[in-house]
Structure formats: structure tokens, C-alpha cells
Amino acid sequence: MLSDSFIVMKKEVLGGGIVNVSVGKEKMSWLVVSHRLQANGIRPDVQSTEISVAFTLQESCDGNYIPNLEHQPVFAFLPLRTYGLKFILQGDFILPSSREEVTGDSPWNQWLLSEFPSLFVGALKSFHGLSCFKEKPGKAVSTFMSFVPLVGEVHGFFASLPRMIISKLRMANCLLLEGDSNELVPPCKVLRNWTEEVRSLLPDSLLHEHLGLGFLNKDIVLSDTLAEALGIEEYGPKILLHVVSSLSRRKSGLRSMGLGWLSSWLNAIYLTCAHSPRKASQNVATEPDFVDNLRKIPFIPLSDGKYGSLDEGTIWLHSDALSTSFDNESGPEAFPKLYGKLRIVNPVLFNAAPAVNSSINDECLVENITRMLYLVGVQRLSAHDILKVHILPAISDESNIVAHKDLMTEYLSFAMLHLQSSCSNCCMEREYLISELRTKALILTNYGHKRPSEVSIHFNEDFGNPINVKTLIDGIDVKWHEVDFSYLKHPITKSVSGAVLKWRNFFHELGVTDFVQVVQTEKRVKDIPHLFNSMMWDMDMISSGTIAKDWESQELVHLLSKFTSRIDQERCKYLLEFFDKLWDDNYSNKITGYCNISSTGELKTFKSSFISILHDIRWIASSMDDELHFPKEVFHNCEAVCSILGATAPYAVPKVFKVFLKWSDGSNSGLLSSEDIEYLKECLSKVEFVVLPTALDKWVSLHPSFGLVCWCDDEALRKEFKHFENIDFLYFGELGDEEKETLRTKVSVFMQRLGIPALSEVVAREAIYYGPADCSFKTSLVNWALPYAQRYLHNVYPDKYSELKQSGFENLSRLRIVVVEKLFYRNVIKRADIASKKRFESNCLSQGNILYVTRESDTHSIFMEISGFFLNGTSELHMANFLHMITTMAESGSTEEQTEFFILNSQKVPKLPEDEAIWSLSSVPSSPWDDETLLTSYASALTDEPDPQMSKRKPCPTSNWPPVNWKSAPGFSFSRTNGLRSQATGSVQMRKGNDEENFVAQTNVMTPIEKTSPGFSFAGADELGQMRNGSNSEEYNALTNPTVEINADWTIEDDLAATMPAMVLQDCETAEYRPERVVLNPVDVGAGSNGTKSSSSNYSERDQLSIGTSNPEQAIITGRLGELVAFKYFTGKVGETSVKWVNESKETGLPYDIVIGDKKMGREYIEVKATKYARKDWFIISAREWQFAVEKGEYYSIARVVLLANNKARVTIYKNPAKLCQLRQLQLAVVMPQQQEFAVVA
């Protein structure tokens, strides 16, 4: 929309290219610079054209111009748009029809663009011509430079213009130098960011002469980015370095400047590095080798008047505080050659007057100079640094050996003296210094300078060696290196007290020894041949790549090879004497190596290579012959040994056994009286009679100071305890089988009289348990079995029974049963107060008067411990089998008459006399917390129990044992009439799946069933069938026949379609026949939601499930035969090597009967449940079996074996029965007792 308003603009052209434009009260100024160009045929229609640049200025109050740096547009006679430029460009640019952009591909436009940099640079003269800058030309340059575009600020067609302008400026004389000359120079010839102190330190003439630079006019202010783009030098460490580098290259350059100037220069370069982090980092960061370059320049004044660099060698700084740390012993007077080799900073440097007047005080100036010298690598002059920095490198230089022999002696003397001082730095670095000296130092010996790391070096008599090695090595080809005497001639030996001892201690740390050198090495276990024979632990615990720390002596091996090859008894005697003198102080700690087992982190020990060499080579001379012997073959010829063995006794360890055998025969024949044996025992018990050899090559007596001394009758226990220090095993040499038997049966009796016990006699088991549990059931079991144990002991061990009776059955009165959740034990030797680190899991353990058992403890294990309890700790297998069979019969439902018949006729154990009181426990605790001993640790003392109640005939039955007679259980008649088919109380659909397969196999079962207890065997398969329960039946008598075997061919088939799901009964061990107990893992076996029975039920309905009391022997035979059939079944499936029948030899009591697979590939556990009745749809499972089934899950199966007529059998596999119960494909039931009290709840 047009309006009637208008704007009045006034243009005024002033002199010097200034153009003012007024718009109302506003006024704008431009400095316009133009140049006419000849077209030169680029555009035929144009002869010439003009380009212009306009700089926007703003007039200040004082009449000066200041730059206006806002972005300005580009003009093609009319404004186009801005491109990021801070000035206006005007040119006859070719434009597109839209006039929005300069055409980029136009040669004309490209030509115009290339002409603008020259026009822009030429505009500097116009700025100089402005009247406001006449007196201050630096301001004109600063204003002009503020318009210079930087790379990245301009875009579009003009993006390359900043680079072209800066390129022109770098070659132009566009910057002013400081001073009155107003000289214009290129940017590369000026130095910016200087101060008056810098100009005083680096005068114009010095700066121009050495670097060709001048100081930038102080009125010129440039941005860091622009200055860097123009190539302007920045004052900083690099400039100072270049100055001093140039001075050092000129003859007398630094010397002409004086030490005062040099001190000012060091102060300045330190301040630029330390106090100007931003600027210094810019300079130093672009010069990563700044310090290295400075180290190459010989700018450091030395005390001898020269200038040196750190690349030429170490330079030392001598400060006032440092000078007092040197005493006369380690000063220049004691070590003139050493100090003559040191280059020290000229101390005048710190006292010279600075060349620059600075506000910094003298103290700070000295501190800054010192820090700068330290920064470039000058070392503080201290005894510790002289040793570390100067001596360590020089003492290993073999070129010094010939030219500076005395200097090498001074080096080592200085090192010895300093390391004996109280230097604080040595506390932290002593180990490093000694290691470096041991590895690199050249020590003067009788064979020249040698390194202790390369050859064995020894002390001679001058250094206090207590042995005369010449008697050992004279006449043989051995190089024996000894420290030269020249070290003892050094002046410090006289000035320092105890110098010889200090020299000896110093050389000893470097590896110098009196005799053969033994060094510690690290090797792989497989590279130590003797290790596998001397290990004190199971080698399966480590791998052959494990690293072991060993001790070895190549020098000893060399000497022994020389002596033994010539059977040189004299030198071997000297060798033994030398070891005798030096052993305790030098070699006793090198007989054991160490190996770290990575899997456990435990440090294990073994016999070192050093001691093995002494053990395994014949090098000991004997008075008996002219041969050399192993050390084990000879006794120590001393008064103590001779007083016992006699002068004519054979001094050889393998004869020790014969000595004991001779004593034993003398004791048996009467040649040795009781007084003689007591005297012998008294002598062996004295501390000085160390005449008994041990397995670890140690000689001991029976004195208590040597710990426990015993003989080994159990190799496993020996391995377990052989690494303990407080126990030793007698060594009898290598014995044959006959000698071993003589030792066990004959010599051991005599050793017992001397007080030397067998290892197994002193080892006891110590119980470790967690979580006390209900002990009523296990206590009831033991209480029930005690009368039978009493009958057995009375019949089989009448002497032991009589002994127990005479004591008033005291041990029985103290017997207590403790049931725990977890049970372990460790072997201990109380006499030696040592305990094994190994812990063994157990389910039954008798310790003292307490019988520890777990819930999972089987009866056979319990009875094994009971037998040991009555027989002085020695378990009696026959007694345990006897009690276990009776218990099995009771569990199977045998009557008392049947059990008694079996005991009298099969086991031949008569009844007790009428006057014998029947054994029973004093009490049966109802809760695990009723027994206060469970609240204490396993090591606590236990309170004695009162005497047991001794009834005249029978022990009173408990509520938990023996099991209820299942023959009289309610519903038994129903089961009998229905073929032992149980009544179902719910509905479960059988699972059909891949767990079952159709397989019929013909097998020849010819393996006889072995006896599990004395005097009892199983009946043959052809005699299985319905058997009478009466105790007088012929079938029962046949069962007790010890000669019957199983010998039949069986046809075994898979049961693919089991029509009757099984009901699993929880046995009495868990249910305990308590009325309040309910079904374990219950499933919904009741009515449906509408109150009706589920139609999908496959279980037969019944109100009661009764268990009859079958013949116990028949039940055992059925179970045993079922296991055999199952074993053959699985063997046919996966092969005999993959199947293990755990009860093949005897009943183990494990919660499974068969194991398939191995530990590596995985194991599956099979529990066999056998029956002769095809319609029987239930079986009994113990609490332990069920718990194991839950734990193993998919790896636990129940094999239901049905023994049919005509030697046929059907096998049904229930995989993961716990899961099948959850899926309602099996049921778990609890059978109630026949009689129980009922409570009515209102």
C-alpha cells in the first residue's frame, strides 16, 4: 500500500574517502576505497569496471573513529544479502533474475572476487590517512585489522575471501614496530604480548640479531586467532629457548651476556611456564620436546667455568642446605676421584645481580632459578642421588675397568658407606638399589671384575670367612671367585668403625657368600623333576604349568660331581664339616620350596632342589667302609647314638628296623628285662638322645620338645598330617611285604611299650555340625536296637561285655543321640594339639559319648558307629549287619516271633540270661532344644547323663519305634481281597509322553545275589510266590538257607500304557504316625467343584489304604530281584559300562539303587520299586528318597518293576516323580496308624 510519506537522506562526501549519510538525526560514516579495473576482454561489452570496499565507522565524542563490526551486505549497485562480512563490497556482479545470489560459476564474478584482497589490503593507507590517527598510527592499524575476516566467518560465494585477504596480509608490510620510526614490517617479523621486563631482558638489538624480530607496536591490539593466522610470534618459552640456543651456538655468546642475564633468563622462562598456564601451554604444547631441546643446549654454567648441557651427562646443584648433609666420611676428601667426575652448577649464578629490574625479591629469584634447573634435569647434590644417578650407571660400565680401576673401587666404597648410613630415602629405595648393584655392579675378584649375578663370588679369610676353602678345592679344576682385598685398603676402612663387618654385610646383600651359593628360582612344576616325589599334597590339585619357588645351587652340584666321581672321601668329609659350621645361619632356611595353588590360593611346600641334591647323591663318608653313602644310610657318630646302639652297631638307616626287631625279640625272649626296657625308654625320652630317624630326614628323641613321634600304619592319614610341624613319623627304610607285616604285628607291640604309638591310635575324629534337628525318631531307633546289641556283645564279645558290666555300663549311661542338619568331621591329634585342614562330610559320627546323626543317616551307618562305641572305637561290620537285618525285618512288618526265630536259628545269637538287665537309653528328648549341648559348639564339654533305666526283660516301646504292624492296619482285608489294589481318593490323569518307550529284551540273568550279612542269603527266583507268614513254614526255612542263588532267564518289557497310576506312600520315618500329620505335597484328591467325583479319575475309589505284613525275607528278595532286573534292563539300554548298581555287593542305604552316566557327562539316579503283584498300584518311598527326588528333579526316576510268572518282568519308568505329583500324575499319601486318639473341635 502506498502512503504519502517520504524519507529524506543526506549524503556528504568528506576528504580522505569518508562518506557521511544522515537520516533524520541518525548519522552513519563509511571509509570508502575504490579501484577501477580494466576488463581485458573478459566481457566484450565492458571496457572497465569499478569495485569498492566500504568500512563502517562510528564517530566518538572525542572526534575519533571506532569500527562498527556488524555484518554488511554485498552490493551490485543495489544491496543483495549479507555473507558474513564486516564491510560492504560493491561490484558489477552478474546476478540471476531473482537477484538473490551472486552467480558462482561466472568467470566475471570470479575475476572480480580475486581483485578484492588487494583492494582490502590497500585500504590500510586510507586508515593511516585519517586525521584522527595521525598521532597514533598504531590505532589506525588496530582499527583496520578489526575488519579482517577470519576463515569460517564468511559463507557462500565469498567464503574463500578471508583466506585470500590473510594471505595478502602475511606478505604485506602491514604491522608497526614499537618505537619512533613507525616502520611497517610483515607479521612474521614482530613479537606480541611482550612487557617492559621482556624488552629489558631481550633488547631490540638482541631480538633482531638472533631471531630477526621486533616488538609489535603496543597500540596494536589483535585477537589471538588473527595473530596466529597472520603468523605473528608470541612471547613465551619457545622464544626464550631460541634466544639462548642462538647465543650458545656463537663463540662466547652466553659468556658475553653474563651470569646476571642468565639468571634473569632462567627466572623468565620459569615464570612463563609456571605462571602463565594458558599462554605457556599454547607454546609448550606445540613443542612437545621443549624440555628435551633445552637439555641439549649447553647453557648451564659449571664450577670449572664451562657451560654444559644435560645431554652430555649429569649436572649437580650444590645448595647451602645440602652442603651440611655431607660429613667427612662421604665428602670430596674421602672420594676425590668420584667428585672429580661430577659436574656441578657454578654457585655464582645465584649471587650475580640480575640483568632485569624486577619486582621479585632475591629469595624468590633463587628459588625460581633452582626449580627451572631441576625441571630440565639438574640433580640435587646428595649422597643418595650420587649413588642412584651417577654410580649405578657408571659401576656397570666395563670401559671403566681398565682406565679407571681406582674409580670403580671408590664407586663401590661410596655405595657401601651410604647404604650403611641413616639416609631417609634409602628406607624406601634400598631394595631397589641393592637389586641394581647385585645385577650390574662389577666387583673386583681374584679373577678380575665380575658381576655377582653372573658368577658366584665368595669371601676370603680377610673378610671373616670361618672356613678354609683351599682344603676343599686345592688340586681340582674349580674356579673359586673371592672378593679382592683392595676394598679393605680404601681410606674409609680406617675412618669408619667396624668397617670389615660393614663390608661383609654389604657384600652379603649383593650375593657374596662364605661357601656355595644357593639362589631362589621360579620354575614351572613340571621342570622340577624331584617335586612330584617330595610333594606334601595331592598332585591332582595343581597343573604342570603352575609356578613354584625353588632353591638350587649349581655350584654345589659341580663340587659334588667332582668329589663323587673320584670317591674322594677326604673332601667329602671337609664338605660335611663346612655344612655343619654354616648350616644354621646360611642354609637351614633353603630346604623348602613353595607353590601357590591358583584354584585355592593356598601356599604349599615341597623339598627344595638344594636339599634334594644332598639327599639323593652318595657323598657321605662312613667309618665302616671306603665307599660314599646316601645321608639316610648313616647315623651321626656321636656319644648319644653310641650310648644306645653300641660301638659295633651298623650305622645305616635301613638297619634301624632290624635294631627295633632285635629289641622286640629280646623283649619276647626275656633277654631284655623290664628294667632294661624302662632304661631304654628313659634314654630315648631325653632331649640329647636324638637317635631316631624320621621320614623328613630329621633326627629326634622322644622328648616332648620334638613333638609327637609315632610310626605310620595308615598312609592316607600320613599324607594328611605329614606337613604339620609338631609330629614326626619314624623312618624304617624301604621295607618288604614280610617286614611290613612284622612291623605291624610284632615290632609295633614293643614300640607301644617304649611310648611310640601308631598314627591311627592318636588320630580322632572331631565332629562339626550345623543346625540341631528333632532327635526323637533316631533316639527311639537306637533305644529299640540296644537290647539286640546287648545280646550280640554278650554272645560274641563276652570279655568286653564283662568289662562293660564291671564299669556299671558307665559309657552306656553317658550315650546321647544328637540329630543335626549337616554333619562333618575333621581328623585331630589332641596329644599334639593339631587338626587337619580337610573336612569330610558324614551322616553318622560317634565322638566320645555322643552319637551325631543326620536326618538322612541310614540304619547301617548308625549301627556301625554303635559297634565302635562299645568296642573302643573299632567298628564291627558283623555286628552292624546283625542289627541292620533285624531293623529291616521290623520295617518290613515282621512279628516279634519271626524276628526271634531269625536271631536264634540263623544268626545263632541266644537270649540273655535271666539276671541280665535289658539295656535302654535314659531318656528320649522330644525337641532338639531340650538338650543344652546343642547350644554350644562341637568343642564344648558335655554334661553327663544320669544312669539308664535297667528294666528286667524288655525295653519300653517308644511312640516312634518300632513301626506299626501293617498287617493289622485298617483296610488290610480290602487290599488282600482286591489283589493289594489300593483305593484312590482323587482323580489324576496319567501322562503319556516320550519318557516311555516300547522295548522287550531277552536277557540271561545268571549273576548270583551276594549275601549282605553273615549267615543269610536270598531265595531263588523259582521259589518266589505266595508265602505263608507263619514262622514254621518250609518256605521260611528255605529263606534262611545260605546256599540259594538266583539263576534264571528273564524277559523284560517296558510298560507303555500303565492303566493304574501309582500312589506313593510316605514312610513312617517322616510321618512318624502322628495324627496331626497331613499329606506331604498334597494334591487335590477330593470332589470336584460341584461336589461330584471327577469323571476323569483313573484311580480306583477306596476309603482306606491298608498295608499288609508280608514276610520280611520275601520283601527283601523281591526288592533285590527287582534291582537286578532293573540293572539288566538299563544295561541293555545304554551298555554295562554306563550303569552302576550301587547295592550289588551290599545294601548301601543310599536313596537310589542304580546310577547311569558319570560325573563328567552327567548322572541319572534310579530308585527301584519292585512287586510280584501286577495289580498293586502303590509303593512305599522313604523320606530320604523323596527328598533326594525333589533335589535331583529331572535326574531322578523311579523304576517300577513287576515280577510276573514264567520269569517275565515289566518295567515302568516314572521320571521326575516330584514333578509328576505336581502335575497330578502321581499321588503322595500318608498312612495313618491303626490306633490313634481323636480330638473333637467345637
UniProtKB/TrEMBL annotation:
Pfam families: NOV_C
Position of the signal peptide: none
Biased composition (Low complexity): 1090-1099
Residue ranges occupied by any Protein NO VEIN C-terminal domain in the UniProt entry: 1122-1211
GO biological process: embryo development ending in seed dormancy; leaf vascular tissue pattern formation; root development
Domain of life: Eukaryota
Entry-linked InterPro entries: Auxin_embryo_med, NOV_C
Coiled-coil segments: none
Record region (Disordered): 943-962, 1084-1105
GO CC terms, sorted: nucleus
Listed name of the protein: Protein NO VEIN C-terminal domain-containing protein
